[in-house]
Every structure is written in structure tokens, then in C-alpha cells.
Write a structure and sequence with these properties.
By secondary structure, the chain is an all-alpha fold. 73% of the residues lie in helices and 0% in strands. It folds into two domains: 73 residues, no CATH class; 65 residues, no CATH class. The protein contains eight helices and no strands. The chain is elongated.
């Protein structure tokens, strides 16, 4: 999907940041991306839908299990679930993987345009960063 790393910083003109500032900026960028994507995706959703999605983010085991049982009972054989489980760091609780899977499936059902939204927000943030690189570099 999108790589938010040193290559990204080079592409937007921030490759000269000191190492500790690179990590701080990348963390900030990810946070802003998540916030803006969440805001855009929540537009037009009901309170019930928002609460349902929030249960995945909060790892509410009962609600995650109920949702998966209702909408994705064959999750264990789904290649998306298998990929998430395989790529999760060692020791990741099963609930974390299942909640991540459920959130992806939920987005596919309730916001099938979520990939487009992520792409548009990423481009917007990338362009803002590149346009403000001189100011960002001046704060070193």
C-alpha cells in the first residue's frame, strides 16, 4: 500500500532531517493520516455504524466475536485473515488479529471506497508536507 519511511521523506524533501526528527515526523505523519482518514470515513455513517467500528478499534472481544459470527463466520479460511495472522508480530493476541480482520471486512461492507479515501488523504498530506518542507526543515 503506502510506505511511510525514509524513502517517503526523501520524496517530499525531508531526507535531511536528523534521525530522531525523522522518526518523530514519521510518527506525526502516520497520526495525521489516521485522524484524517478516520474523519473522512466517518462522514455519512450512523451512530450505530460508528459504534460498531469503534468496537474493533477498542478490541471489544464480545462485540468483535458477535460481528464476525454474523458477517464472516468462515473467517479462518479467508486469505485476508490468514495473511494478517501470518504477518502479525510473534505473540500478537488472536483478538488483535481478529479485530483487524473484522475492521477490514467492515470497511469493505460499509465504506467500499475506503482505499480511495486513504489514497486521496495520503496524497493531500504528502502534497502539504512537500509544500511546507522548508518550514519543517527550518524548525530543526
Amino acid at each position: 500500500m503506502f510506505q511511510i519511511d525514509d524513502t517517503f521523506l526523501q520524496e517530499v524533501g525531508l531526507g535531511a532531517l536528523p534521525a530522531e526528527q525523522k522518526q518523530a515526523f514519521l510518527a506525526y505523519f502516520r497520526e495525521q493520516l489516521e485522524l484524517r482518514v478516520g474523519t473522512k470515513l466517518s462522514e455519512g455513517l450512523s451512530d450505530e455504524q460508528l459504534a460498531e467500528f469503534e468496537a474493533f478499534m477498542e478490541r471489544d472481544e464480545t462485540r468483535v466475536d458477535e460481528w464476525v459470527a454474523r458477517y464472516a463466520p468462515e473467517y479462518a479460511s479467508d486469505t485476508i485473515y490468514q495473511q494478517l495472522k501470518t504477518s502479525a508480530p510473534a505473540g500478537t493476541p488472536d483478538l488483535v488479529v481478529l479485530a483487524e480482520y473484522a475492521s477490514l471486512k467492515w470497511l469493505g461492507l460499509n465504506r467500499p471506497d475506503y482505499r480511495d479515501v486513504v489514497g486521496a488523504v495520503m496524497k493531500e498530506l504528502r502534497d502539504e508536507t512537500a509544500a511546507n518542507k522548508d518550514a519543517i526543515l527550518a524548525t530543526e
